[in-house]
Design goal:
With 446 residues, this protein is mainly beta. It has a single domain (56-371), classed as Single-stranded right-handed beta-helix, Pectin lyase-like (Pectate Lyase C-like, 3 Solenoid), CATH 2.160.20.10. It has two helices and 47 strands.
């Protein structure tokens, strides 16, 4: 028995033997470096060309005598890191140049976080798709702050967000789908576009298309000509939207829709304020083309230097548009003006608007046919004489259920139009069967 125990103890002692306690060498790092986790390439000089996908960043402020940074490949992130790219004023130079081609668009590029000034173009993005410009300041560039170009190709599905674009010699933001190209489905969001020499935001389908773009939550102020422009120009500029924007103090029009030998159809402006323009707050202009089926809704349009809303056929078509639930006030001429203008102004609807204290007329139909004016409240135009709802050389218009209060001439109708009875009663309305006040189409005059 004792021999067996000794044998077992010897075996256990052999099984529990330990290796050497001397370390094999110095400890080695086990964590990855920052370059391994997020590999990025520093840019230390202007004129830099990015030709490989990846992440790049500025290390300091840079001054350029040509382009600042040129991107010529997909899948690039360029972080300006809060630094400034400054040009020497050359009109053909680009602060950041996204250099795609008609048959080889650049995709999936992000440019962010910095200032770009004193170039011809702050950001020139040619033939890019699915890319993003964000948290940039483009200031004092001689041509454009941000230019998206799809002429003969495509510049689609891009986003410009949280940017400040000011002091450009021409347009602040220019979307160009010219010459058979496309500049479609882009988004401009939460941007401040101000003090540019011509237009704040300019969308052109010149001989091509600029469709389905969205402008949202932007401030477009104090530009030298117009705030926001949609122009067909022998092409099409259709289905674009402006939502919840403040458009103020622009020297000419606040917003222009212009067919110009092409189409400017199916666009919408919703929940915007349009104020302080030097001329019309909002102009829809056929201009030898089409300006049809557009919507202006839930907007405040006030204090503009001419009419608040002006719909004009102008040797073309301005039809099927809707102005609804808007407050149109304090404009220096007419609140809402519809005119054929040697073209057609047909089938438009002015409904449920409050039109007050404009200089001469609340709502004017002038050489306009087959339009609907319904449910509006028109009050207190300030001219002498003043007009509430007035028809001039019109036919076939439908004028129902409006109220006009406090003008010299509340209603000036023509026999060629159709309108509900005009009720002038004071006090309790007559309830006898057949009384005009019982008509569901009655207009009321006070």
């Amino acid at each position: 028995m004792m021999a067996a125990l000794v044998s077992a103890g010897a075996a256990a002692s052999t099984g529990w033997a330990q290796g050497s306690l001397t370390p094999p060498g110095a400890p080695a790092p086990t964590m990855k470096t920052l370059a391994q986790v997020a590999p990025r390439t520093p840019i230390t000089n202007a004129g830099y060309v990015i030709s490989q996908p990846g992440s790049y960043y500025l290390t300091t402020n840079l001054t350029a005598t040509g382009h600042g940074v040129r991107i010529a490949t997909n899948a690039v992130t360029l972080d300006l890191m809060g630094f400034t790219l400054t040009g020497d004023g050359g009109g053909a130079d680009n602060g950041v140049f996204l250099d795609g081609a008609t048959n080889a668009s650049i995709r999936d590029v992000v440019v962010r976080n910095g200032v770009i000034r004193n170039f011809g173009y702050g950001v020139n993005a040619e033939y890019i798709q699915g890319s993003r410009l964000e948290h940039l300041i483009a200031a004092s560039n001689s041509n454009y702050g941000v230019f998206l170009y799809g002429g003969n190709g495509q510049c689609n599905g891009n986003t410009i967000a949280d940017c400040t674009i000011r002091g450009s010699g021409l347009h602040g933001v220019y979307l160009n789908g010219s010459s058979g190209g496309q500049c479609d489905g882009n988004t401009i969001a939460r941007c401040a576009v101000s003090g540019n020499g011509f237009n704040g935001v300019y969308l052109s389908g010149s001989f091509g298309q600029c469709d389905g773009n969205a402008i949202a939550n932007c401030a477009v102020r104090g530009n030298g000509s117009m705030g926001v422009v949609f122009i067909g120009d022998s092409g099409q500029c259709d289905g674009n939207t402006v939502d919840n924007c403040a458009i103020s103090g622009n020297a000419n029009y606040g917003v222009l829709f212009d067919g110009q030998f092409g189409r400017c159809n199916g666009n919408s402006i919703v929940a915007c304020t349009i104020s302080g323009s030097g001329a019309q707050g909002l102009l829809l202009n056929g201009n030898n083309g089409e300006c049809n089926g557009n919507t202006i809704a839930d907007c405040a349009i006030s204090g503009n230097g001419s009419s608040g809303v002006y719909l004009s056929g102008s040797s073309g078509q301005c039809g099927g548009n809707t102005v609804a639930n808007c407050a149109v006030s304090g404009n220096s001429d007419t609140g809402v003006w519809l005119t054929g203008g040697s073209g057609q102004c047909e089938g438009n609807s002015i409904v449920n608007c409050a039109v007050r204290r404009n200089r001469t007329r609340g709502i004017l139909l002038d050489f306009a046919v087959g339009n609907r004016v319904e449910g509006n409240h028109v009050s207190g135009q300030t001219g002498s004489p003043s007009y509430g709802i007035a028809c001039l050389a019109t036919a076939g218009n439908l004028i129902f259920r409006n109220t006009c209060v406090g003008q010299t001439n509340n209603f000036t109708m023509l026999a060629s139009d159709t309108y509900g009875p005009i009720v002038t009663n004071t006090g309790a309305l007559v309830t006898t069967n057949g009384a005009a006040a019982l008509s569901p189409w009655a207009n009321f005059s006070r």
